[in-house]
């Protein structure tokens, strides 16, 4: 600053001297000299200002420390692999990061201890172990990426071997823990998960409000359309009243275009756990779309005891027949039992659901029809709902709905409604606006009921058909449900 001040004083003296010299004969020459002096000193001042320590710019070091890609390449692993294996994000939660690579069927532990990964990372960062360094991938391997500024990020990398068909899951024994199995506790759940010793052990005093408030699932599951799968697992609980459900559902990508990233393809609900470990076998299914990144999910929010779940397997059984157009209902005659028909709290599935806001009703699918016992007379008919979701109702199209039904109590009331399903199609700020509704008084003998309606103003690609049973008092029987476009 003193240098700058001195320069300014020098400028003043120079200008003063030049003005006095204006008495000289060559006035124009003196003016040129004045302005030359001004220009020179100004440049000096600007230079001094730019180099002022108070205005100096410090070098900012990069904090980037990400693994950009992680792969096992054939060129780096000759004789072990026949195709490149590319890693995918296994989890990224609260600065805890994991990468998963699914090795081809037949890859042995002897192969895994020889694998060299090809790794790319953020610019100016370093990684340890380094790229193309052999590591033991018979177990999770930890990589540390260090940024230019010295901060670091750990990645846990796992490489389980795919099992032969028809198995769909990887690591059903949970050898790789959270790198292959996702867990979360949301809503009011305080559940904790311990994924060691071949099992998932769930503890915590609160599991949340909904069945999906506490979840164990595997992502990246490749599902084929119109296919049956068998889900098998061992489970137990210290609370004999605990109930869980299992899903196949979207895994964060809107495959069906309904605006929901986690639409359930199929659900099996009300699975009662015992205090003694037992093997459970449930049949689940997909509908008319492939989903290469689905979730196979355990919903644990309606539990209270210490849960133990392990030996999980999901195997492809074979194709299932889709309804033939113009029919829109899967398994409407219940000839396949509970397939596409489930009892659960969810309302976003093509399958059928029982949404129980009251009572302890029991639903049965074993007799070639749907039977509901113990619904009780509720304050609202929608307290008990049997639902078929994701009906594509097109503006200007007419539809006919029919079904057979009876009750052990004469004039038992039920209502059938077609409505929105979590999407505000008509803009009235309600997610469940009714498109059509019709009430019936059932008789004690089987009758066929039907109605026809037309979608006049809107198209709803994910509508639902609801049987509202909450005010019925008898044993309800429903069969041969059909919905056809005309």
Features:
disordered N terminus; 3 helices; Jelly Rolls; 4 domains; mainly beta; 486 residues; five-stranded antiparallel beta sheet; Immunoglobulin-like; five-stranded mixed beta sheet
Give an account of the 3D structure.
With 486 residues, the protein is mainly beta. It has 3 helices and 28 strands. The protein has helices at 2-20, 27-50, 109-112, and strands at 67-72, 85-86, 88-93, 96-100, 118-121, 126-128, 141-146, 152-158, 182-185, 192-196, 199-203, 214-223, 227-237, 243-249, 264-272, 278-285, 291-299, 307-319, 352-356, 362-364, 370-373, 384-393, 398-407, 412-419, 434-442, 447-454, 460-468, 476-485. The protein has a 5-stranded mixed beta sheet with strand order 3-4-8-7-6, with no helix packed on it. Helix 1 (2-20) packs antiparallel against helix 2 (27-50).
Any chance you could write out the topology, listing elements then pairs?
Elements: H1 2-20, H2 27-50, E1 67-72, E2 85-86, E3 88-93, E4 96-100, H3 109-112, E5 118-121, E6 126-128, E7 141-146, E8 152-158, E9 182-185, E10 192-196, E11 199-203, E12 214-223, E13 227-237, E14 243-249, E15 264-272, E16 278-285, E17 291-299, E18 307-319, E19 352-356, E20 362-364, E21 370-373, E22 384-393, E23 398-407, E24 412-419, E25 434-442, E26 447-454, E27 460-468, E28 476-485
Parallel strand pairs: 4-8
Antiparallel strand pairs: 1-2, 1-5, 3-4, 6-7, 7-8, 9-12, 10-11, 11-18, 12-17, 13-16, 13-18, 14-15, 14-17, 19-22, 20-21, 21-28, 22-27, 23-26, 23-28, 24-25, 24-27
Helix pairs in contact: 1-2
């Amino acid at each position: 600053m003193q240098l700058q001040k001195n320069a300014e004083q020098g400028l003043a003296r120079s200008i003063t001297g030049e003005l006095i010299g204006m008495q000289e004969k060559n006035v124009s020459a003196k003016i040129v000299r004045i302005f030359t002096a001004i220009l020179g000193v100004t440049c000096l001042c600007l230079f001094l200002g730019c180099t002022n320590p108070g205005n100096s710019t410090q070098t900012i070091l990069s904090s980037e420390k990400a693994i950009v890609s992680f792969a096992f390449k054939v060129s780096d692993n000759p004789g072990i692999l026949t195709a490149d294996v590319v890693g995918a994000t296994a989890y990224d939660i609260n600065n805890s990061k994991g990468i998963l690579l699914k090795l081809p069927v037949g890859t042995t532990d002897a192969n895994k201890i020889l694998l060299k990964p090809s790794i790319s990372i953020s610019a100016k960062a370093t990684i340890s172990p380094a790229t193309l360094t052999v590591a033991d991938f018979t177990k999770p391997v930890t990589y540390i990426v260090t940024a230019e500024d010295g901060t670091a990020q750990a990645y846990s990398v796992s490489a389980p071997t795919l099992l032969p068909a028809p198995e769909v899951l990887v690591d059903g024994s949970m050898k790789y823990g959270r790198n292959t199995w996702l867990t979360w506790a949301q809503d009011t759940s305080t559940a904790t998960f311990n994924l060691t010793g071949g099992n998932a052990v769930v503890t915590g005093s609160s599991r949340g409000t909904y069945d999906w408030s506490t979840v164990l699932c595997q992502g990246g599951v490749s599902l084929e359309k119109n296919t049956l799968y068998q889900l098998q697992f061992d489970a137990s609980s210290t609370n004999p009243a605990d109930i869980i459900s299992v899903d196949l559902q979207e895994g964060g990508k809107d495959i069906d275009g309904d605006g929901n990233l986690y639409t359930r393809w199929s659900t099996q609900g009300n699975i009662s756990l015992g205090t003694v470990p037992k093997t459970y076998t449930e049949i689940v299914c997909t509908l008319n779309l492939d989903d290469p990144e689905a979730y196979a999910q355990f919903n644990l929010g309606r539990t209270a005891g210490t849960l133990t779940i392990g030996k999980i397997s999901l195997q492809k059984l074979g194709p299932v027949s889709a309804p033939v157009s113009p029919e829109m209902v899967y398994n409407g005659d219940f000839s396949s039992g509970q397939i596409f028909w489930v009892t659960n709290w969810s309302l976003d599935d093509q399958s059928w659901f029982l949404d129980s806001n009251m009572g302890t009703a029991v639903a049965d699918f074993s007799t070639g029809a749907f039977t509901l016992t113990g619904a009780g007379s509720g304050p609202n008919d929608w307290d008990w709902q049997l639902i078929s979701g994701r009906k594509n109702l097109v503006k200007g199209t007419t539809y006919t709905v029919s079904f057979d039904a009876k009750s052990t109590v004469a004039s038992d009331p039920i209502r059938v409604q077609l409505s929105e399903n979590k999407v505000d199609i008509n803009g009235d700020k309600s997610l469940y606006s009714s498109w059509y509704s019709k009430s019936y008084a059932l008789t004690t003998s089987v009758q066929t009921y039907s109605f026809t309606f037309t979608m006049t103003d809107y198209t709803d690609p994910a509508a639902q058909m609801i049987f509202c049973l909450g005010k019925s008092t008898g044993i309800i029987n429903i069969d041969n449900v059909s919905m056809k476009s005309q």
